[in-house]
Amino acid sequence: MATNPSRGGAAKADGDPVSPRFSTISGSEVEECYGPGQVESGSEDIGAPGEYPFTRGVYPSMYRGKRWTMRQFAGFGSAQDTNNRFKYLMAEGSNGLSTAFDMPTLMGYDADAERALGEVGREGVSVSTLEDMEELFAGIRLDEVTTSMTVNGSASSLLAMYLGVAERQGCKWQDLGGTIQNDMLKEFIAQKEWICPPEPSVRIVTDMIEFCAEHAPRWHPVSISGYHIREAGSTAVQELAFTLADGIAYVQAAVERGLDPDRFGPRLSFFFNVHNDFLEEIAKIRAARRIWARVMRERFGAKTDRACMLRTHAQTSGVSLTAQQPLNNVVRVAVQALAGVLAGVQSLHTNSLDETLALPTEEAVTVALRTQQILAEESGVANTVDPLGGSWAIEALTDRMEREAMEYITRIDDMGGMLRAVEIGFPQREIADAAFNFQMASDAGEYVTVGVNGYRMDAPGGKVETLKIGLDLEERQRTRVIAFKAARDADAVRAALERITSAARSGENVMPPVVEAVRAGCTVGEISDVYREVFGVYGDPAWI
Amino acid sequence: MSDEHALRILVAKPGLDGHDRGAKIIARALRDAGFEVIYTGLHQTPEMIAEAAVQEDVDAVGLSILSGAHMTLFPKIIELLRAKGLEEVPVFGGGIIPDEDIEELKKAGVCEVFTPGASTKNIVQWIKDNVADRA
Q1: What are the phi and psi torsion angles at A260 (to 5°)?
Q2: Cβ–Cβ of A106/B16 closer than 8 Å?
Q3: Which residues of B touch A196 (CB under 8 A)?
Q4: Interface probe with A: pick from B9, B11, B16, most Cβ of A within 10 Å
Q5: What is the ipTM of this complex?
Q6: pLDDT tens digits for A134-185?
Q7: DSSP character string of A265-291
Q8: Could you tell me the pTM of the whole model?
């Protein structure tokens, strides 16, 4: 039997109506009804799809011309386990790959490192060597797919390995399409997988932007990510503002390096969360496009439309899923995915219903992918561009998102930019406060999560099978990496690592020697050790 | 809980995952509930956590983990605490931990495991009911 919360129209014990809250999940009040008086933006702000400032979408015909990419994030166990999952997803209609690496890989430790204990292949796929990377993409031509790789601190090593695999397959670098996340600022803000302190981390990001512009022009060298900021507990406005402020910092760094924003600008991509609050999320992504277009044109002097277009991936919200009554998660994901599509995203990952319990099973992943296919094939929402554009509520919420995000961006500018703001912990503290306030409101019953603090069931039901990753995997990976290391030309490895050290110290671009080092058999851990030695290790300031 | 001495709780993040939202919320909620809280920050080894427990003379250790490495790291931390003579310090935990693993962890000496959806009030109450002042 369900226990219902008292909220919004429900009755208190004494019969008086409860004062209802009509605010978004981020705590923003929403009007009873919107009309033209609440819309601040004019026709030049809203514009037409495919035209500056791209509020209504980056392409004139949107999904009529090209449907969004269904890009399901996958990675667990060994390279071979994940390769099998990739092939399954592609066979079922997923049309872009997206790689989740395990924690040791993200933190720059090989599978045989002491720090990797217990973590190998658990939260993503374990990749220490070029051999692992080759196995991960075995049987998949890299010039025929686009691949997203979620890796940041060790991104330079993993990109070099991807380029190395492409070479071995006989693919040209200029034909490679895809994205490496490589957004270090948001690591310090939210995801917190790092190697070195913020300043040298941003320098390596800038090296990669420069390197890709020259050698892999179709590759996106950074995916400026709000997803993790939101998952860490930010509000929608904070997600929007901090993500764009991170983007501003990367563009600033690249411009200071002498790069042309019209050249590298079109290769920047974004990654937003789509959380529960349907209208707020659509407004957030529309506002993101408008702000970014203006930033690129007005602040950085970009002349081409392509450099001003914010193209984005989106993922449904992991933290919104519940362990209680897990089948309800399918509905949450569907609503969030619909918001993403109505907001005009370029690619989308839908979470699996079991992800609050473990990494997803094949069955759960299939339901998640089918959710997108149902939206695309059955719902009809992709037939017309920005169908909600011109709705007074949507336009008014988009205006408010823009205004409130710009207030944050101005504050961050006043601090000297996002790198400085991160060093003093400003966005970190804002997010921690928002996360704590939400938890308190949730504990007090002000926000109802179905199945958790409302509509609970004594027998939760709907128990789902979860994916198990055997403890033997770690030992196999460890043995494999040790054998790989023993079989290399040790002198060549040492010399290659010294060349990275020298570039890191002198300020030369690190990517060419990292690419060489990977060819010589250097591992993710060894290359990261060079960074640790030259730039130092970043430790968590442990702000609470 | 004695009136003179607030319970000292170590909130620790073992392993390499960076998901500190839960740990930080718990740290704040415990502090607001009147406990003295020591938060280790992220990416701690079992040795670092056991050492912090000794140095800070804590009454309980709370572990937060979302990397799936709990079956390796939790027992290792308990073993190290015992080796350092802290066998009576209760260890509790939270994170993405499947039900069947919770049973195993309890056999290994973890007193309680809180999973997604647990309220901070329940955790505060559990500490009040189960943690004794060692001072």
Answers
A1: -90, 120
A2: yes
A3: none
A4: B16
A5: 0.94
A6: 999 999 999 999 999 999 999 999 999 999 999 999 999 999 999 999 999 9
A7: GGGEEEEEEE-S-HHHHHHHHHHHHHH
A8: 0.95
